[in-house]
Amino acid sequence: MPYSPAHKPKTRIRILNAATALFKKNGFENVTIDQVMAEAGLTRGGFYAHFKNKEDLFVACVENGMSLLSSPVLAKLRKAERAGGDWVTSFAELYLSRVHIENPELGCALPTLSAEVSRSGVRAQEAFSRLINQASEKLAWKLAKEDDVPGIDRHINLESDQKLRNVPVQYEQDAIAMLAMMVGAVVLSRAVDDET
């Protein structure tokens, strides 16, 4: 009996989800195609129906699921905001939480993969650059919104890829600085065996 038309996209998603978690947890260089396929509950032979090689898989993971502001994170932030909390503070607390630090496969790809991407191919670097730009742009918009900057659209869906306009340059610079500090803090925290 042949597979349904939905089988191939569902299988691809299983592979992407398994690979994304493994790349975040172990790093690009330390993950094999066999490990990804085993984690997805599939055989190695099925890999090549979806991806040319490991770098192709990595690029697809970055493009499809290694978002800094993933749906579960945004849901927690919206909940905190509705409860009267400050979005930026809530974001920083969530990002720097023990859960995020101790479970890289569940969190942001930036602390785990930034150094490895710098040694990867051009396609992976470009995809990672887009991830960083999207994340910093959205964070800049939230910083500007919280400061009540005039002229910015107040009704943006942060889960979309739409371009955010009218965000002053200072907020973009602040967002990059905030991301750099938080990513660096997570990297250092994971590198040392100290809970303080």
Folded structure, characterized:
The chain is mainly α. It folds into two domains: 59 residues, Arc Repressor Mutant, subunit A (Orthogonal Bundle); 121 residues, no CATH class. 62% of the residues lie in helices and 0% in strands. The chain has nine helices and no strands. Helix 3 runs parallel beside helix 8. The radius of gyration is 18 Å and the shape is globular. 28% of the residues are buried. The mean pLDDT is 83. Pfam families: TetR_N. InterPro entries: DNA-bd_HTH_TetR-type_CS, Homeodomain-like_sf, HTH_TetR, Tet_transcr_reg_TetR-rel_C_sf.
What's the gyration radius in Å?
Answer: 18 Å
The total count of strands amounts to 0
Number of helices: 9
Main sheet? Answer: none
Quickly describe the structure.
Keywords: DNA-binding, Transcription, Transcription regulation. The protein has two domains: 7-65, Orthogonal Bundle (Arc Repressor Mutant, subunit A), CATH 1.10.10; 71-191, no CATH class.
Itemize the secondary structure elements and their pairings.
Elements: H1 7-26, H2 33-40, H3 54-65, H4 71-82, H5 87-95, H6 98-102, H7 110-117, H8 122-146, H9 169-191
Helix pairs in contact: 1-2, 1-3, 3-8, 4-5, 8-9
Feature tags:
single chain; 196 residues; mainly alpha; Arc Repressor Mutant, subunit A; 2 domains; 62% helix; DNA binding; DNA-bd_HTH_TetR-type_CS; TetR/AcrR family transcriptional regulator; transcription regulation; DNA-binding
